[in-house]
Amino acid sequence: MMHLQLARKTWPGADSAVLADIELHVAAGEFVCLVGPSGCGKSTLLALIAGLDAEFSGTLRASADLGLLFQTPRLMPWLTVRENLALVLPQGRCDAHALELLAAMGLDAATLDRYPGQLSGGQQRRVALARAFAARPRLLLLDEPFVSLDAPVAQRLRELLLAQWQAERPGVLFVTHDLDEALTLADRIVFLGGAPAQVVLEWRCGVLRPRSPAAVAGQRAVLLGAHPDLLAGRRGCGPAQESADG
Ligand SMILES: Nc1ncnc2c1ncn2[C@@H]1O[C@H](COP(=O)(O)OP(=O)(O)OP(=O)(O)O)[C@@H](O)[C@H]1O
Question: Pick from 24, 3, 28: which is nearest to 169 by CA?
Answer without folding.
Answer: 28
